[in-house]
Amino acid sequence: MNKGGYRRFVLFSGLAFALFLFSSPQFLTAQDNLPKGNVIGFLYAKDGTTPLEGAVVKFKNLTSGSMFISSKTDGYGIFKLEGIESGMYTYGVVTEQGDFNADSFVGLKVGGNETAKLSIALDPYDKDAAEAISEIYKEQEKNGEALIGTIADFNPNTRLAQVQIVKGVLQVNDKIHARGKSTNFYQDVDVLMIGSNKARRVLKGQTGTLKLEQNAQSGDLVYVVPAKKIFPLFLAPLGIAAVIGGNEAVTYGIMKIKDQQEPVSAKKN
Questions:
Q1: What is the domain extent for residue 246?
Q2: What pLDDT score was predicted for residue 113?
């Protein structure tokens, strides 16, 4: 195994262990009795070095639903948060220009007044992507999943599907639901192609190619569903926030949490 593969293996193993630890019955039972800790962090622009002032970071506990809000970042991009519980979190950043959703979940293991340290960088979307992603989030909140396209062509030998995007956007690391007369399955999108080139996202009016894990048919519908049915903090984000560093009290990275393969129910009012 090469060094890059080893690092990814170690990171994924750490994420899997953190998810197991923070979601275990023993942890959930004892969670209310655990001492609380602190977070100190640094907020940067996309380059990872330019500090951003006047923003706040929001952390939402995936188990309890509790929301924790940091102090505003200072001239060095530093924010602080006291009295946070150990657990798995989604997070987001509120700036004067707009809001940024997390690109992954983060695990915090703090106690006895310990401090988790992490650095976050913000990456704005372009205008078209921001509008398309907002459209997806709003439909997911309303219906539980968002229709983004149809399968224009499927090769059963290679399982490569041509997906025509009719609205919104399809992105790498999205979770999709393919549905038709004899098709009904979920999978993650690991690789997207436009023509012969890899792409991060495919927008309305474009056709992307991806490999399906099961057979499908031309005309099947393709939906995007939120991972673990956890909705992002902001429905009209300006971009994404990514943790780019942390100490031993922080587990972070692209975390894929597998759902049970079942239809997503529409959100009830």
A1: 3-125+237-251
A2: 73
